[in-house]
Amino acid sequence: MERTFQAAMAAQDRGDLRTAESLLLSLRKAHPANFAVDESLGLLYAAQQRYDAALPLLQSASHEAPTSDVAQTNLGAAYFHLQRNGDALDAFQRAVRLNPKNLTAQQSLGQVLLELHKPDRAAEAYAAALALDPANADLMQARAQALAEAGQPDAARAQLTAMPGLDESAAAQSLLGDIEEKRGDFLAAAHSYQLAAQLDPSEANVWALGVELLRHWTFDAAVREFEAATKQYPQSTRMHQGLGAAYFGNGSYAQAVPVFADLLETDPANAFYAEMLGMACSAVTQQPRPRCTALLAYAQAHPADAKAAVYAAAGILQGHPADDQTRQARALLEGAIAANPRLPEAHYQLGLLLQNQTDWSGSISHLEAAIALQPTLAQAHYRLALAYWRSGRKQEGQEQMELQKKYATQEKEDLDQRLRQITIFLVDGHK
Predict the structure, then answer these.
(1) Among 339, 338, 370, which residue's Cα sits nearest to residue 354?
(2) Per residue in 343-378, is it b (16+ CB within 10 Å) or e — as a string?
(3) What one-character-per-residue DSSP string does 132-182 give?
(4) Does residue 387 lie within any of the structural domains?
(5) Rounded to an integer, what distance in angstroms lies between the CA atom of residue 97 and that of residue 99?
(6) Long-range contact pairs involving 206-210 (C-beta distance under 8 Å, separation at least 24)
(7) Which of 41, 128, 276, 334 could bridge across to 24 with cysteines, CB 3.0–4.6 Å?
């Protein structure tokens, strides 16, 4: 048995895994319930990433040597690779109880605890591992991540900044950016993300830098980053989302239009892209908007999307629509109100359309509905004032004009804030 076992180990050492497996299988058949054979064959399969085959062998080995912390660690690793994290946790905990100085077991315990969203306990496990290997940079970074996820950003920063080679590690700088963001030091976070992107200009690192700039409304810089990023990673959808958001937040709506139009073209049923295209198109008033026709096509194909219908209709009405275009806009708005009667912008736009057709009295009910749904809608107050005056209701018209003055400044401030919040939602919600 000993000679055959040594021959199997020698075959494995020289890379002849087939021979090693054959010899170990023959030994297992002749000598069942042997720890050395079961453990060796299990590890052979694990090294080949054949974890389903490795698991029963490593389970047997752990029963055959119940006091072996190494056997428990190997068993935990197999469970972990099979995504059986609860079983992996039990195995690693048994390993560290048997031998608290087992570095691999402590490190693996920290990893599985992080996967199970138990960062406090993960940080303790990594601390125990660091006590065994105090200069281990990987352990320092792992513990910093655990501390950050546990809501201890100051402790996480202290741990990470003690890590040797911090300034040369893109992964560590990216993590430091996350930590500084949680600490509220946005300039430091941007610096760390930028350094990470310089050290490793991967799509993920470049994205993180761009998002940080957007998150804190640094739109000029975000535009530059995402313009370069879309050239570097032209197939990355989220880079194009980021560029559209940067243009949008920067008030460059005409530049945002083709970005969102391209995104909608690649994903014609995407309601979010349609909404962003609609908002950008609605904001462009003095420049050509040829790509905004994509919104009309989307709205006609998705009649239940009330917001898209309103944006498409507003786009038609912003120009000098012919009679057939006006009829098209009216159909879109009436469909939007049917789909969502509580959409104030739909009632406002229909009221505006009716006024353009000199139907002043007909516009009143829609403008009143818009204001009832959104009392701060300044333009609706203005249009309702005009309708009241035309209908001989001058006192009510004067009251509406006063409300328009009251809400005009607030509406502009609210719109500016909403536009910037949308850029953040766009990026954070569509990673």
Answers:
(1) 370
(2) bbbbbbbbbbbbbeeeebeebbebbbbbbebbeebb
(3) HSTT-HHHHHHHHHHHHHTT-HHHHHHHHHTSTTGGG-HHHHHHHHHHHHH
(4) yes
(5) 5
(6) 206/232, 206/233, 206/239, 207/236, 207/238, 207/239, 207/242, 207/431, 208/174, 208/177, 210/239, 210/242, 210/246, 210/427
(7) 41
| Residue 85: partners with Cβ closer than 8 Å, 6 or more residues away | 79, 112, 115, 116
Query: What is the predicted pLDDT for the residue at 216?
Result: 87
Q: Where do we find the tokens 């909608």? A: 264
Name the residue with tokens 């012919």.
322
* Rg (the chain; Cα; Å): 32
- Dihedral angle sign, alpha carbons of residues 127, 133, 134, 139: negative
Q: Residue 133: inside a domain, yes or no? A: no
- 118 assigned to some structural domain: no
State residue 258's pLDDT score: 94
CB–CB of 337/343 below 8 Å?
Answer: yes
Q: Which residues of 198-217 are buried (b: 16+ CB within 10 A; e: fewer)?
A: ebeeeeebbbbbbbbbbbbe
In CATH, what number is assigned to the domain containing residue 310? 1.25.40.10
Q: Is residue 103 part of a domain?
A: no
Residue range(s) defining the domain that contains residue 252: 234-431
* Residue 418 burial (C-beta neighbours within 10 Å; 0-12, 13-18, 19+): exposed
Helices 137-149 and 153-161 meet at what angle, rounded to 10?
170
Which pLDDT does position 58 carry in this prediction? 97
The parts of the chain modelled with pLDDT lower than 70 are: 285, 411-424, 426-431
Number of domain units in the chain = 1
List of residues 6+ apart from 398 with CB closer than 8 A: 385
